[in-house]
Design goal:
single chain; mainly alpha; Cytochrome Bc1 Complex, Chain D, domain 2
Amino acid sequence: MMRLQTIATAAATLVLAAGMAHAQGDPKRGEKIFENCRACHAADGAANEVGPGLRGVFGRRAGERDDFRYSPALKRSGITWTPQTMTDFVADPQKMVPGNRMPYDGLPDARDRADLITYMLQVFK
């Protein structure tokens, strides 16, 4: 009986670990997905272009970078960028913040979003 419990525990641990690895995403895939974002956001994340620089974005409140002109909607949103809020925003920017200026329809695939956010967490610390 003890052996069966040990096997069941090990199997459950492996399933959970695999799920967590998938939920974290693949940064290599995320880098490829970010290529689309580079049309507006600088690759190094520091400089503003059409969109704001993303370096240090996680933990920052939306619309608070002094050197970028954000939409009033984003400034009023009250969002603090976390992996979850960024995931939700990237999924459908206009749904999350109606009236924002980001000219992007969204990234519908959950795996793509997980990969993108994992990449962003590594690059834009």
